[in-house]
Amino acid sequence: DIVLGSNNVTADSDIAxxxxxSGDIVGAGMLKGTAGSVTLTADTGxxxxxxxxxxxxxxxxxxxxxxSMRDIIADRNVSVMTDNGNIGISTLDxxxxxxxxxxxxxxxxxxxxxExxxxxxxDNxxxxxDNADVAGNASVGTTEGNIxxxxxxxxGSxxxxxxxxxxxxDDADVAGDANIGTTEGSIxxxxx
Length: 192
Known about the structure:
mainly beta, eleven-stranded parallel beta sheet
């Protein structure tokens, strides 16, 4: 395990933290790459860090394990990925694109402000989004699971799909095309 405690780590360029084989990355402080990227990688293990601020890209990846982040802020792109595990992000803010992906697990996002495109996908799990504002296109999809969105605003198109599961949207403001569909389940939209 790599335990950062509540210490803040700041670098003028890139920050890269990696566990080889197995182990968690845990920290209650801030990791800040002022003019560079922040990369956290665990082959097998969870990543639980409060704050990540990247001057360029933020890349958070684990093969098997959960990812739990309070704040992710990046001047460019954000990539959060696990093959097998849940992803929870309280606040996501990027001037670029955001890709949040798990093959097997739930995805929960509190607030997302994305200046580019946003892709949020899981093959097997539920997706819950409280509030997302996307300047580009938004794609939210699961093969087997439910999708619940309190508020989504996008200047581009929105694709919200599940093959086996229900879709519930309280409020969506989509400037482009809206493709919302399920093969086996129900769709409940309050305001579109």
